[in-house]
Amino acid sequence: MFNFLGEINDSLELPLTSVFSRYKYVNLAGKMIYVQGYKDILNFDEQEVVLKIKEGELKIVGKNLNIKELNLNSIVIEGIIILIEEVGGKNA
Predict the structure, then answer these.
(1) pLDDT at res. 17
(2) Is the terminal CB of the chain with fewer CB neighbours within 10 Å at N or C?
């Protein structure tokens, strides 16, 4: 799988620990979200995906959500993304 955030890190030449010390995500025009650094999938259906992250949970709310790609620590979710919210930590 293509490592989107790894490519960004390489181009910026930042220390890896400063880039990946917690989870990161990229929302692509509200149609797809790439999340790296999640720990587990806590809930998944067409309207909501809840991911376990180090600081709590990352909740993705939308319509017609589905998992496009899944890797050990990264996930790509596509659909109509309405809300991305960090629960149990700082707001995302």
Answers:
(1) 43
(2) N
Order across the sheet with 24-28: list the strands: 24-28, 32-36, 74-87, 56-70, 48-53, 40-44
Averaged over 69-91, what is the pLDDT?
A: 88
Measured CA to CA, the distance from residue 13 to residue 64 in angstroms comes to 37
Model confidence pTM above 0.90? no
* Domain extent listing, the chain: 23-87
Residue 68 and residue 76 in contact, taking contact as beta carbons nearer than 8 Å: yes
Does the domain spanning 23-87 belong to CATH 2.60.40.2000?
yes
| Distance from C-alpha of 60 to C-alpha of 83, rounded to nearest angstrom | 6
